Amino acid sequence: MFFRLSVFKKLIKSAYKRTGFYLGQDREKIYYYIRTPRFVVWFNAESMPKQAKAAVIEFSGELPEPGEEFLCSEAQECNQYSFLGTDYSLFDIEQKAKAKFHITKISDVSTDSRYMYSKIEDRVVNSILIPESILAMIDAGAIDTANGEIPPIGPVATGVIDKQVFWHNNTSALLVMDVLEGSDDEAKSYAMALAELEANSK
Predict the structure, then answer these.
(1) What is the helix (H) or strand (E) element at residue 11, kind and residue range?
(2) Whole-prediction pTM value?
(3) Per-residue pLDDT tens for 10-60?
(4) How far apart are CA 27 and CA 66, in angstroms?
(5) Burial class (CB in 10 A: 0-12, 13-18, 19+), 84
(6) From residue 134, how far is each of 43, 142, 169 by CA, in Å?
(7) How far apart are CA 189 and CA 54, in angstroms?
(8) What is the CA radius of gyration of the chain?
(9) Prior bond to 49 cis, omega within 30?
(10) CA-CA distance, 28 to 44, in Å (whole number)?
(11) Angle at 130 between CA 191 and CA 52, to 5 degrees
(12) Which of 85, 118, 193, 201 lies most in the core, judged by the most C-beta atoms within 10 Å?
């Protein structure tokens, strides 16, 4: 997996204590997913690292059966089961997510987020903010190259003005929904200008 385990555990613990998180498995037994209001993480069902599995089971107590998901929350005594209405199909997202985003070095201190941008023909067309706390989970050093894991593709989205960004490789994936438009027009314009300079200097 390309996730820093300590940050992954911290994020799902936070979700467990606040809103809870959904844990599911697709009907074809290909992957497990952890869905929070801020992000979704997928793991290959056969190769999910033991440490990540243990981190999830610490809060869920168990893993779901194929085609099943349940809510894990500190506010309830046991998991609330439901059958999948939506599979959060990893395959569908992988097929659609082709629009490349670029991560800048520009941060918004007020939201603890980093600016990202997309462009068409060297022109920046969108700038969004992505939480530093979630970016901190992505760790190239955690990739298991000895067992055939490859570097992740991303960040990408289904369109250049999308409000969700996605990373994926052959073992795991991350979809971030908790992105923001720049809240301050002047700061956003400044960030867009710097992003355009950064984009054109490569």
Answers:
(1) helix 5-18
(2) 0.88
(3) 999 999 999 899 999 998 999 999 999 999 999 999 999 999 999 999 999
(4) 5
(5) middle
(6) 17, 15, 17
(7) 44
(8) 18
(9) no
(10) 11
(11) 150
(12) 118
